[in-house]
Amino acid sequence: MSEPASPSEIEQGEGGPVGREPEPRREPVFNMPPVVLAVIGICVVVHLIRFYWLTDDQDFSLLIRTAFIPIRYSGRFDLDFYAFSSPFTYAFLHGGFAHLAINMVWLAAFGSPLANRFGALRFSLFFAATGLAAVLLFWAVHPIGQTPLVGASGAISGMMGAAARFGFRIDRSSGKAAFAGAPLPMAAVFRSRGVVTFLVIWMVINLATGLVAFAPGIDSQIAWEAHIGGFVAGFFGLRAFDRRQQADEFRA
């Protein structure tokens, strides 16, 4: 049995007692999926530990083990555990606070609607796959490079590629912003003026910042190869991770 409401919970109306109108629901300050918050949290914690806790020698040792270094796969070195883990762990390291801040802002913007559509598991797999595609292209261009590659921008570029395939359409009907509709066919993508404009501008900016080695607040060179590798993987491979698309196929 339900308990009767107290007089303070009942207001008198013209037709008798009526319940008070519910207070409007407050939106959370950080309206991001838990998996996106988790990735941001890991990146921030790792960077703070490197900056405030580790010595220079300890940080260098960490980079050798967890950053992606192409020459490791040249045949000159034995392939140890870190050779297989670093193509994934490099994404959680960043070159400076500006690098970290820029990547986290873009991760929140493009990762949140993608995670709300994919779900936590598929989003995590997408993050890992596009990050791996990013280092594969970087390695193909610099097979004996010795400079460590760090940063989540390869995977974030994959999210931008996925966003382009959805035509940047957002569905907020459930209270959680998510990319809406089925991924656009290639013919529709290249007929969309907005999507094509985004693709051209994105490519020009990445090539310019990478080849000219200029980006505000970032001293190190931008790995444009990793950005393109991640973007292409997200653009062409998102159907493998899209649970809504697969659900529609099963119902058909």
From TrEMBL:
Key words, A-Z: Cell inner membrane, Cell membrane, Membrane, Transmembrane, Transmembrane helix
Topology class, membrane: Multi-pass membrane protein
InterPro entries with a match to the protein in the record: Peptidase_S54_rhomboid_dom, Rhomboid-like_sf
Residue stretches making up the Peptidase S54 rhomboid domain: 88-236
Main location: membrane
Region span, Disordered: 1-24
Protein name: INTEGRAL MEMBRANE PROTEIN (Rhomboid family)
Taxonomic lineage: Bacteria, Pseudomonadati, Pseudomonadota, Alphaproteobacteria, Hyphomicrobiales
